[in-house]
Description:
GO terms for molecular function: 2',3'-cyclic-nucleotide 2'-phosphodiesterase activity; 3'-nucleotidase activity; metal ion binding; nucleotide binding. By secondary structure, the protein is α/β, with parallel strands linked by helices. The protein is 23% helix and 29% strand. The chain is built from 15 helices and 38 strands. The strands form ten sheets. Strands 8, 9, 11, 12, 13, 14, 15 and 16 form an eight-stranded mixed sheet that branches. Strands 6-5-4-1-17-18 form a six-stranded mixed sheet. Helix 3 crosses helix 10 and helix 11 crosses helix 15 (575-586). The longest helix is centred in the first third of the chain and has 18 residues, at 3-20. 49% of the residues are buried. Residues 1-23 have low confidence and may be disordered.
Amino acid sequence: MDRRSFLVALALGATTCLAGTGVRADATxxxxxxxxxDIHVNLLPYNYYADKEDxxxxxxxxxxxxxxxxxxxxxxxxxxxxxxxxxNPLGDFxxxxxxxxxxxxxxxxxxxxxxxxxxxxVGNHEFNYGLDFLANAQxxxxxxxVAANVTRVSxxxxxFKPYEILTRQVTDEAGRVHALRIGVIGFVPPxxxxxxxxxxxxxxxxxxxxxxxxxxxxxxxxxxxxxVVALCHSGLSGEPRVGGEENAAAYLTExxxxxxxxxxxxxxxxxxxDFSGLPGADMGKGTIHGVPVVMPGFWGSHLGLIDLTLKExxxxxxVADATSSVRPIWETKDKQKVALVxxxxxxxxxxxxxxxxxxxxxxxxxxxxxAPINSYFALVQDDPSIQIVTNAQAWYVQHLLKxxxxxxxxxxxxxxxxxxxxxxxxxxxxxxxxxxxxxxxAADLYLYPNTLRAVVMTGAQVREWxxxxxxxxxxxxxxxxxxxxxxxxxxxxxxxxxxxGVTYGIDVSKPARYDGDGKVVAxxxxxxxxxxxxxxxIDDQRRFVVVTNNxxxxxxxxxxxxxxxNVIVEAPDENRTALVNYIFERKTIDxxxxxNWSLVPIGGKAEVTFVSSPKAKDALPAGxxxxxxxxxxxxxxxxxxxxxx
Length: 645
């Protein structure tokens, strides 16, 4: 017998001896967790608002990455982090127009079932269409959907199954098969009961994400989970924990017993520069406090991977090493978007009928516009894309106030630019040509299925609302020469509320009064100037009716004076429905803005700049205040706004 044969025989003999004595050799298993998040019904690479192909989105393309990543690993699980069934006209068509009968499969779960997902959780947008629709949709999923921090109001018991233990056969590095018990637990931002108050009030409540984890993770371990994976539809924050946070995923890495975290909600990417400087983060390994975390973008833009090295010692499994990474479906080359993968043909075929039905729905005409409507400059000047929405909201509520105690109060209307570039990229702007307006255009102007609300506020509260909104701008130093960027990239455009019905200016030479969490950080500063009603300074004690949506009225965005307590109108209709009806009744609209707000001149030497779409140079507003400066990073273009006089 040669030396190699002798060693093989010796190893086999040792294994046999161990088996014969009931002693099991320790094992090493490589386990890959694959994750998606914030799909928002972007199943195919198609933009229903623009009615054209879009290579930057689509689970059908992510599916190709999934197949490749699975082929690279002996052992893998596919997980989703929710916000799946709402977000584009396909989702609205299924929920609002066609409906979903009992036993029918929702298109999202049709695709996910085909891809053989192992588990999912719920996100805040899962609740937008109500609990009945959600239950009907989720019934068509062939995998468990878990959420640990949502409870029934009636008895305090979990509304969803808090967790699931998945038993999977895994193969170790020596080729031996083991039964691995993987605990999967889910979480949703506790603020969902405020954001969707009308649908959830009196039915469900929520608890703090970390507290829910501390309650259920030990239970998972006690029931025999070898490892625990958290599906946390919540973002990453470096702020000290105080409890009740919307973005709490990073805090879960310090909860004993959690081995990996799939994060989301913020539409960002981790590991990556989006979270540079995050406390406890190791970008090289993709960990936070030593625990692997991944946030794989949004709309199918990335696939998240968490690679775990598991060691078994004495019958117990532990994580010996872990890394996380992301893989994109597209990239930019020579300023052009280039697809890195093709769509999975099986997914495309499975969704063909749903896709074609949605196209028929969004192409239905509702009226005409006499001029183009775009949002290229919505963050820097009063804009028609917001004006038409605020006009429609005010029109809707004025009818409802007749004969009530609020009839006769001034009606103001708040709206925000939902599509204003940012993380959506240089094409993420509203751009509707003059002529026919279809349902797809109304959905483009108002992306979300928010329901319309009206609140009563004093003039002083309206002023503070606008001060919070003015956090969208960086502070500009007029004494400093050279370029200074105007827009605060950390401030979401959907929180930049314009309030129509009053006039005002915004002084960006002053520091922002509020931070992004709604806390007063510059108590002596006031950016809002010359706030007036019908040409007269606003009376701080006078009452106003302000039309908004359920998200903002219930406290979404942490605006001062908005917590759900001063709502006087809870409309049954969506803001978008009000917009469609407004256009349909008028047949022809003139989308001109009324110029009720502006950035006030600050003088000085600063060159104030911002980025927008390259197409914006062909739509420069009259007056010469805004001028094009050329190309910017990531496919955007740079513009200058003259605030000198």
